[in-house]
Specification:
With about 375 residues, the protein is of the alpha+beta class. The chain has 3 domains: about 120 residues, Butyryl-Coa Dehydrogenase, subunit A, domain 1, CATH 1.10.540.10; about 110 residues, Butyryl-CoA Dehydrogenase, subunit A, domain 2 (Beta Barrel); about 140 residues, Butyryl-CoA Dehydrogenase, subunit A, domain 3. Helix content is about 50%, strand content about 15%. It contains 10 helices and 9 strands. A hairpin with a 2-residue loop joins strand 8 and strand 9. Helix 1 packs across helix 3, helix 4 runs antiparallel to helix 5 and helix 6 runs antiparallel to helix 7. About 50% of the residues are buried.
């Protein structure tokens, strides 16, 4: 697929791949074991300009596009999904809402540090009673004078409690219109009284990424912290999730490829019954299917990214990409652990970590079922 990339894109892919192998991979096992996000690695990603890839130079970005972001995320996902999701969430869920919907003052104030990797931000959408059904949001924001008073809770919020997290963008019910919830988006700085970042989760995978539940108990922020027009929160976060699904598909493709590459290398070096495992037809067929999944997943997310960057409709293609790539990552991780045998059950082997990490790729930023619903609607099916 490299032949379909521009020269600049190939250079980016090579640069991030080298960074992933020389800087990210050596620390991945220990970071996973200790549940620690390396702020040094985050800082180096900032120095490389990765957090600013799809943003204009006006705010400190690299002047690139979503294709460039996906290339970087895929390269990181090959070796460490926790680092890849830190970049994905930092860009798609942290900085992009401000870039897309913020006032000029909000952009000038918040984006430079986010795009340089000096700061991170979270996106508070999911709640205990509002996952795939985001319209069931219960968190409320009441306007009192020139302040929003926020009450409620959020869960599974990435990058919300790191040492450099500046704020979380929160969706909240700000009233009713024609009997329906009016959902708006509000910026809540970390450290705001009444805003508590709770203890981190004990997760199955993505152990080195930062994920917390959040509690709001009378948290007050200025009225000017409204992000976008009042009542547009629902529509705005849906568009953000459409873009994010392309990035998650790229991450999934990287994970699927990481499993394939490790399995091919292991099969060639592993001797069983007097010959290399790679000479056994059942192993060859397994590896061939893994290769086909990687190829298909990459085609899918490339197509969605090119559509997005061309300003064309891409929601259905993004859903297809996330569906196909998420399943590719999970299937390849399962096959890789089988190729590795007992070693595939040991956490020091990357395929074991991919096996734990990959399941969330079929859940986060829209479950498999949500993607199928979007695709079905594209077929004109109503329900």
């Amino acid at each position: 697929m490299m032949e379909e990339l521009t020269e600049e894109e190939r250079e980016l892919a090579g640069m991030v791949r080298e960074f992933a192998e020389t800087v990210v991979a050596p620390q991945s096992y220990e970071a996973d074991r200790t549940h620690t996000l390396s702020m040094d690695v985050v800082g180096q990603m900032g120095d490389l300009g990765l957090f600013g890839l799809p943003f204009s130079e006006e705010y400190g970005g690299q002047g690139g596009d979503y294709m460039a972001l996906g290339i970087a995320i895929e390269a990181l996902g090959r070796v460490d999904q926790s680092i890849a999701i830190t970049l994905e969430a930092g860009v798609s869920l942290g900085a992009m809402p401000v870039y897309r919907f913020g006032t000029e003052e909000q952009k000038q104030t918040m984006l430079p540090d986010l795009l340089a990797g000096r700061a991170l931000a979270g996106f508070g959408l999911t709640e205990p009673e509002a996952g795939s059904d985001a319209g069931a949001t219960r968190t409320t924001a009441r306007l009192e004078g020139d302040e929003w008073v926020i009450n409620g809770s959020k869960q599974f919020i990435t990058n919300s409690g790191t040492p450099i997290t500046r704020f979380v963008t929160v969706t909240a019910v700000t009233g009713t219109v024609d009997g329906r919830k009016e959902i708006s988006t509000i910026i809540v700085p970390n450290g705001t009284p009444g805003f508590t970042v709770e203890a981190p989760y004990d997760k199955v995978g993505w152990n080195a990424s930062d994920t917390h539940p959040l509690t709001f108990d009378g948290a007050r922020v200025p009225a000017a912290n409204l992000l976008g027009a009042r009542g547009t929160g629902f529509r705005n976060f849906l568009s953000i999730l459409d873009e994010g699904r392309i990035a998650i598909a790229a991450l999934s493709t990287g994970a699927a490829e990481g499993c394939l590459e490790a399995s091919v290398e292991y099969a060639k070096s592993r001797t069983i019954f007097g010959s290399a495992l790679s000479t056994r037809q059942n192993a060859q067929f397994t590896l061939a299917r893994m290769r086909a999944r990687v190829h298909t997943a990459r085609l899918a997310w490339h197509h969605a990214a090119r559509l997005r960057d061309a300003g064309r409709p891409f929601a259905e293609q993004a859903a297809i990409a996330k569906l196909v790539a998420g399943e590719a990552a999970m299937d390849n991780a399962r096959d890789a652990t089988q190729i590795f045998g007992g070693n595939g059950f040991m956490n020091e082997f990357p395929v074991a970590r991919h096996y734990r990490d990959s399941k969330i790729l079929e859940i986060g930023e829209g479950t498999t079922e949500v993607q199928l619903l979007i695709i079905a609607r594209g077929l004109g099916l109503a329900g």
